[in-house]
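notes to self, project folder thing:

trying the whole complex as one job this time. last attempt i did each chain seperately and stitching them together was a nightmare. two parts in total, labels are on each line so i dont mix them up again. if this works i'll redo the older ones the same way
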Amino acid sequence: MAAILLIEDDPLVRRGFQLALSRHGHDVRTADTGEDGLRELRSSRPDLVVLDLMLPGIDGFEVCRRIRAAGEVPVIILTARGDDFDVVGGLEAGADDYVVKPAQPTVLDARIRAVLRRSAGPPDGVRVHRDLHIDTTSLTVSLRGAPVTLTPTELRLLLTLSRAPGRVFTRQQLLEEVWEHDYLGDSRLVDNGVQRLRAKIETSPASPEFVQTVRGFGYRFGPG
Amino acid sequence: MTERSEGTDRQGTRRLWPRGLRARLVVAFVLVTVLGAAAAAWSSAGSASSALVTSTQQRLTETIAGQIGAITPQLTYPPDQVALDRLRAAVGAETLVTYQNLRSSDGTAAGLVTDALRTAVRTKHRLVTQRIIADGRPWLLVGTPVTITAPNGARTPSGIEVYSVRDLSGVEQQIEGLARSAAGTAALALPLAVVLALLAAGSVLRPVRELRDTARRLAAGDLDARSPPQGADELAELTVTVNEMAESVQASMAAMQRMQADARRFAADVSHELRTPLSTLTAVVEVLATTTGGMEADARESARMAITETHRLVRLVDDLMEVSRFDAGTAQLRVEEVEVTRAVRDCLRARGWLDRVELVAPQEVSLRLDRRRLDVIVANLVGNALRHGEPPVRVRVSASSEQVRVEVTDSGPGLPEHVSPHVFDRFYKADAARTRTPGSGLGLAIALENARLHDGDLTAGNADGGGARFVLCLPRELEDR
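result (full assembly):
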């Protein structure tokens, strides 16, 4: 069970998803505007935000950016059109995943659970790569002694990659393992997640030391 | 095209009368100029020569009459041979003088004097002239009776006749010179006429050529094409008319495009608007689905129908949105390296079709394409084969150096002849009675659009065995976009 904040302006859609997600065992609070949602975020501290992009007042992209700036709460966006503009904009604003409307609650629930899952495989102690420490038991990461706060998705991506340093993961594999998408998953999720992870653990994200791009194939965890 | 057919029709006349407007104008202009110049030269040369002949004749005649007049008083009468000789010598060479049986002549004069002249002189008793041609040369014959004037002034015919012959060759040459210079003038006018004709043809043909270019551009679809009308002649009027025609064609095209765009935007707007209530429905029918257990039978059936139809509506709206994106030209390719055989197998597996469909793929085929769109194409083709054809359904993946082919064949009766041309039409139903199918009616249309987005093609036909066969061809090299 997760505490979910649903930000959606249409009252019937809002209520419908609240009913359906509640039946999946979630505790769903709702907000009908971005401003309201950000207030609710501060007061109720949900595990995850489901965010409609088409909102009156400040739009979904801006809300997403502010949520990301405020902390590591995962965000799943509802894209009304399923158009690339929404997807790209939402991911750039920091969303962890997206679901195209009209979304089936079962699908949304599966995404919520995937995004909230932090661990990747059984814990195997602390992985040390140069000055990067990944504790697979407490699920914490520190760089040069300073703790790094990662979203669940970022953490899981890092855990998955660092499980087998040097091994190349295709985007498809990462989509299935980290995002739990099927074979038609959107590889932009991976690229976007990698970018955000690099911004947090790489000294120079332009020439990454840990998460390296293997052109034409995917990514691998760098230092052996 | 018209030009060519005209050319073959008029092959016969083409040699005599040039086909191009320019050549026709030049020929006509030159003909008119030359005819005019020739007529003017001919008539002026004619009048000049007749005036020349007349004046020469007059001069010669006056000279002869004067010479005779001067010698006559000194003559004895009746004259003897000596007197006649004196008279002849006084008149000059080529002269014949007769008096009854006496005659005095020199040169060829005597031979040239005609009987007609003699008779005329004798009967008319005055000076008579005659022009003859002898030995290919023109001659002037002058015959006159000599009259004796008595001291009292009485004039009596003396019976002496003087005939003189004068060569007119000089005059003839002068006339020929005149004609030659007239011909020369006409010849000089010829190049001038050609130049003028070319200039005139140019001034007529330039607007014609501009009009032709404009018409070609219009025909090629450039509806902004116009020719500026110049002057106020018939060609300018034609230009104005053509411009007006283009204007009205452009206006109706714009109106049509606006209507079409409106219709498309309407479809996009409608499907977009449908999404919100459908989102609610999708959310709540799931709640309904999990609670049907406690319902009465008819309520449970109603709930199931609501669920099924909601999912159908969602699929229909999804397809409508997809079609709207193709119509609006906003459909985008997200190209990545895809192993086609595996993608096809994934597509079949995801839909639970692996045990109903035979996949024939001899080798791995890697291709840059949009994975999701390939999935849509294959799912639509196989779904269509499973619904409308008969098992076994076979999917064959093959590759050549230029393209990758995905063939979907069923074992049913195949596509009827009247259906084949329409299978890719939107909402086309092969059988009017079968109005309800699980599909949206847009599946094959979307599959075709997706194939074309890849610069590929999708064709429908029948296999040799009789079943329907759809062939997707994707080029190996997809242009970067």
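what i see at first glance: Chain A touches chain B at residues 10, 12-13, 15-17, 19-20, 23, 80-84, 101-106, 182-184, 187-188, 216 (CB under 8 Å).
need to look closer tmrw
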